[in-house]
Amino acid sequence: MQLHDKLRGLHHRNLLPITHVCIREREKPMVILPYMNWGNLNLFLRQCKLVEANKPQAISQQDLVPMAIQIACGMSYLARREVFHKDWAARNCVIDDTLQVKITDNALSRDWFSMDYHCLGDNENRPVCWMALESLVNNELSSTSDVWAFGVMLWEFMTLGQMAYVDTDPFEMAAYLKDGYRITQPINCPDEPFAVMACCWALDPGERPKFQQLVQCLTEFHAARGAYV
């Protein structure tokens, strides 16, 4: 409920608003959210690979970049208000049939996507593959660590929901990142979006772009390139 509390009263076109909260004594709290008819963004991206009957139709990278821009806009809004999500990933967004994307919290992610979380000996399941080095080592969470996670989320977009660092042991992730290794450029991903990802993964948090810069870079790329495959 902590993130829900922070999101209450905030309004942005790319944030899923909380319509009602019900808290009763000796009962679990309930939150009512608007319905987004294509549901969880991570599952949607995976379904786009299947090209099966009754599945959302496949989308092009021309569609993916504006979707990523929407998320960056929402994240920029939160960063300006010093609200840190701490678990940015496609699984924590929802989408409708107009490709409108909205950010939500991580209330259900740990149940629906349990394989995305790992306990590194501190009795806390964490989204290791989305975490910046300073978050893994020192549990430092900030807008700059959210920028790192956005880079991984952008990689999710370009791979249609693939799992990042699938061959890396979660217990070795900090050492892997410290040695300079990162997830590789996806097949058919243009150089420009991958360059944006790489900037997000700078070891020095001060060298990472601001969310508004990410919005600008992706918007300029989309306008310049138009449709691409």
UniProtKB/TrEMBL annotation:
<feature type="domain" description="Protein kinase">
    <location>
        <begin position="1"/>
        <end position="222"/>
    </location>
</feature>
<keyword id="KW-0472">Membrane</keyword>
<dbReference type="GO" id="GO:0051897">
    <property type="term" value="P:positive regulation of phosphatidylinositol 3-kinase/protein kinase B signal transduction"/>
</dbReference>
<dbReference type="GO" id="GO:0005524">
    <property type="term" value="F:ATP binding"/>
</dbReference>
<keyword id="KW-0732">Signal</keyword>
<keyword id="KW-0808">Transferase</keyword>
<keyword id="KW-1133">Transmembrane helix</keyword>
<dbReference type="Pfam" id="PF07714">
    <property type="entry name" value="PK_Tyr_Ser-Thr"/>
</dbReference>
<dbReference type="GO" id="GO:0010976">
    <property type="term" value="P:positive regulation of neuron projection development"/>
</dbReference>
<keyword id="KW-0829">Tyrosine-protein kinase</keyword>
<dbReference type="GO" id="GO:0004714">
    <property type="term" value="F:transmembrane receptor protein tyrosine kinase activity"/>
</dbReference>
<dbReference type="InterPro" id="IPR011009">
    <property type="entry name" value="Kinase-like_dom_sf"/>
</dbReference>
<protein>
    <recommendedName>
        <fullName>receptor protein-tyrosine kinase</fullName>
        <ecNumber>2.7.10.1</ecNumber>
    </recommendedName>
</protein>
<dbReference type="GO" id="GO:0007409">
    <property type="term" value="P:axonogenesis"/>
</dbReference>
<keyword id="KW-0325">Glycoprotein</keyword>
<keyword id="KW-0067">ATP-binding</keyword>
<keyword id="KW-0597">Phosphoprotein</keyword>
<keyword id="KW-0547">Nucleotide-binding</keyword>
<dbReference type="GO" id="GO:0043235">
    <property type="term" value="C:receptor complex"/>
</dbReference>
<dbReference type="GO" id="GO:0005886">
    <property type="term" value="C:plasma membrane"/>
</dbReference>
<keyword id="KW-0418">Kinase</keyword>
<dbReference type="InterPro" id="IPR000719">
    <property type="entry name" value="Prot_kinase_dom"/>
</dbReference>
<keyword id="KW-0812">Transmembrane</keyword>
<dbReference type="InterPro" id="IPR050122">
    <property type="entry name" value="RTK"/>
</dbReference>
<dbReference type="GO" id="GO:0007169">
    <property type="term" value="P:cell surface receptor protein tyrosine kinase signaling pathway"/>
</dbReference>
<dbReference type="InterPro" id="IPR001245">
    <property type="entry name" value="Ser-Thr/Tyr_kinase_cat_dom"/>
</dbReference>
<keyword id="KW-0675">Receptor</keyword>
